[in-house]
Each structure stands twice: as structure tokens, then as C-alpha cells.
Amino acid sequence: MSAPETTLVCDIEITNRAGVHTRVALMIFKKVEEFDCIVSLTNKTTGHTGSCRSVLEMLSLGATLGDVVTLSITGVKADVLQKELLTLFENKFYEDEEETKSE
Questions:
Q1: Domain assignment of residue 62, given as a range
Q2: pTM for this structure?
Q3: How far apart are CA 24 and CA 92, in angstroms?
Q4: Domain assignment of residue 1, yes or no
Q5: For residue 55, which phi and psi values (nearest 5 degrees)?
Q6: Which of 57, 85, 101, 103 has its CA 20 to 30 A from that of 6?
Q7: Spatial contact of 44 and 68, defined as CB atoms under 8 Å apart
């Protein structure tokens, strides 16, 4: 018997200065690729939705600092993936660490 598929939805405020830009979208994409889940982000300001399996779709959201995005995950290990993605958002995609390395 396989584990049940679940859908998790939560709102996240963008707190990293550059918003969802190429490096951030790639980090999300790479994490999502590790799971067999359907994942999307919706920018609540613009109403645009994009698949997290497409860097271009995430970039098209235009999500910037202060915007709220809705993260939706459907799959068997949705809870694990949600936790890992929330960690990325909470840590501002480690942008402060990147800036420190480049100084």
C-alpha cells in the first residue's frame, strides 16, 4: 500500500531583497526535482501562477520583496518538500551568505 497523496497550501512573504530571481528560481527548481510532486507558486499581488518545475514560469511571477506568494504542493511527500522549501524562504535563499562570500 502506497502513502496517501496530500495537498498542502501556505502563504509566504518574500523577504529576500531581490525577490524571485534566476538563482532563487533555480534553487526552488532543483529542490522540487527531488520529489514526485506538483508544485506551484502564485503571486498574490499579480494573481499570476507558475509551476516550480519551470524557472521561466517562476520568473514570470514578478515576485519581489514584500510580495506574498501562495505555495501549493501535491504529492506523497508534500510535507517534506514543503518544509525544505519553507527553509529556503525563511533563510532568504542564503543571499546574505552569498554577499559575504563576494566581499
A1: 6-102
A2: 0.91
A3: 9
A4: no
A5: -60, -40
A6: 57
A7: yes
